[in-house]
Backbone:
């Protein structure tokens, strides 16, 4: 029935800051950028290397997430990487704080967490 995730939609509080984070820091390329005047909202489609996408939305005065990371709904977004250490070094060089690297007790794979500009938990998970 389903094959893979097509996209993940994220609503941000500061469109330009989040756009810079996802393109300049994470290196995602822009597929399309549209301003919807009737909603005073941007929709930015970003390409992931595997064909998936992130849709970045802006809306006037979106409500904050009630708590993290155990709030109902999306807990975090995880990205696969060849080397967690290398990715952490790149993020640190760009001024992004990253939690200490951990090892998944079930798979033995390295992983860590960081946040986007709105505090959305993002994970790096080693291949």
Residues:
């Amino acid at each position: 029935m389903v094959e893979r995730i097509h996209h993940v939609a994220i609503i941000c509080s500061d469109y330009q800051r989040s756009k810079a984070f996802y393109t300049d820091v994470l290196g995602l390329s822009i597929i399309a950028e549209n301003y919807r005047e009737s909603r005073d909202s941007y929709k930015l489609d970003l390409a992931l290397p595997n064909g998936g996408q992130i849709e970045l939305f802006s809306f006037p005065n979106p409500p904050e997430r009630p708590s993290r990371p155990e709030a109902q709904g999306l807990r975090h977004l995880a990205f696969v990487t060849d080397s967690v250490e290398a990715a952490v070094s790149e993020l640190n060089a760009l001024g992004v704080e990253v939690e200490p690297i951990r090892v998944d007790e079930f798979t033995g794979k390295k992983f860590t967490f960081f946040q986007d500009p709105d505090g959305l938990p993002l994970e790096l998970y080693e291949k």
